[in-house]
Amino acid sequence: MSRVHFQPRHLCLAAATALATLSASAVHAQAQPPIKVGLMLPATGTFAALGTAIENGFKQYVAEQGGKLSGREIQYFKVDDESDPAKATDNVNKLIKRDNVDVIVGTVHSGVALAMARAAKESNTMLIVPNAGADAITGPLCAPNIIRSSFSNWQPGFATGVLAAQKGYKRAMTITWNYAAGNETVKGFTEAFEKGGGKVLKELTLPFPNVEFQALLTEIASQKPDVVFAFFAGGGAVKFVKDYDAAGLRRTIPLVGSGFLTDGTLAAQGASAQGLLTTLHYADGLDTPRDTAFRTRYATTYKLQPDVYAVQGYDAAQILASGLAAVKGDFKQRDAMVAAMRKVNVDSPRGKFTLSAAHNPVQDFYVREVKGEQNLRTGVAVKVLPDPARGCKM
Length: 394
Ligand code: PHB
Known about the structure:
Bound molecules: P-hydroxybenzoic acid
Number of strands: 15
CATH class of the largest domain: Alpha Beta
Largest sheet: 9 strands, mixed
C-alpha cells in the first residue's frame, strides 16, 4: 500500500497554483467591468407606466440569465426623460457624457427618441429603442449602432388600415396627438386603408399630451364617418376611450386603433373599451409556452400583468444579450457584436421575429378584441410585416 504524504514542497506548489489561478481570475475580472446600461425612460407624465413596464421587462430578462450577460454584471444609470423633447438632448448627454454608458436603452416618446438617435449617432454610442416608433430612426437616421426592439410607427398604422378596409369601412376620420408618432401612424393607416378602397375624410389632431377631446368628438359626431382611427397611448388613451364612450359614439361609430389605445390601460378604461378592435405585435391569449412562462414570471415578480411595453423591454435585453454572447462579453468588439444582433432570431413572448437591414423588427400584427381586461388575439391583420425603411442608407 502506498500513501501519499504531503511534503512542504507539495504544499508550496499547491499554494503557488492557487495564487496563480486567483490572480488570473482577478485580471479577468478587472478586464471585464460591468456593462453600463443607461435607461432613458419616462418616469412621470402620460407615459410613466409605459416606462416602468419597459424597465421591468428588461430587468426580468437579465434576472433570468442570473443577473449577468455573458459573464458581465449590468450596472444601471437612469434618467427620467418626462416625454419632453425639449429636454431630450440634455438628458441623453447625461448618460453619454457624464455617466459614460456603454449602451442606452430608451425611450417611449418618438420626439425624445429622435434627439437620442442623433446624439447616439454623433457619439457612436450603442442605442436600443424599446418603444418609440419614429419612422426616421430606422429610416434616414438608421445606423449600425441603433437597433429597435419594438416597431416603426408606420407598421401598426398600416396593419390597422388593412383591418379597417377588410371590415368594409369606406369613410374614415383619424384622431391623434400632433407629433411624430401620431402623424406617422395615421400615415400608415391611410396608406393601407386607401389602398383597400377607403378614404380618409379628415385628420383631427391636438397637441401632445393634451386630453381636451370634446370639440373634436363633436366634429366626429357631426361628420358621421364609417369608422374612426385613433392613436393615443398611456394616460391619454385612457381618457380618450372613456370620452369617446361618454359622448355616445362607441355604439354608433366604430373606433379602431393601433393597439396602444388599449394596452396596459384596460383596468382604467373598464366598460368603455369593451369590444374595441385594434392591431399590434402583441396580444393576450397567445397561449404559447414562451409567452406563458414570460407572463407568469412577470406577474409574480412585479404583481402586475405584462403588456406590449414589458415585452419590448424584455426583447431589448435579449437582443443585447445575443450580441454580447457572440463576442463573449467583450463590448469593444462592436462590429462583430452588431453583426450578431442584426442576425438574431428573437424568441420573443410576442412570437419569433427577425430584424430588417435597417434594424427594425419584421413581425406579425395581430387583430385583438377587448374582452374584460384582455386584448384577446382574434386573428392576424398582416403576417411578417417589414417597415419600408424609406431613406435608410446603411
Ligand atoms: C411614440 O411616441 O413613438 C409612442 C408612444 C407611445 C406608444 C407608442 C408610440 O404607445
